[in-house]
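B., you asked whether I could sanity-check this one before it goes into the benchmark set. Here's the sequence:
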Amino acid sequence: MTRAFVNFVALLDIGCWAVCFWWMHRISQRQNTMLQELQHQARSIEAVSKEEHEILKELHPTVQKIEESVDQVKESTQS
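And here's what the prediction gave me:
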């Protein structure tokens, strides 16, 4: 093999490493972007869930009072 061919293969190898590094960097950037979007979505879902939980905590005693009222009316109408 000639020296020029060996140098060409070495440069081709370095070029392949550069392309591979660039490609992996792009994939990593996309993964980071997706991870940030998922974290944002998870925070939004958590906030909505907490609000829903607070609403249910406020609503639960009211529902229980309504059920008691319905039971009282039911008992009075059955008598």
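One thing to flag: The mean pLDDT is 88. Otherwise nothing jumped out at me.
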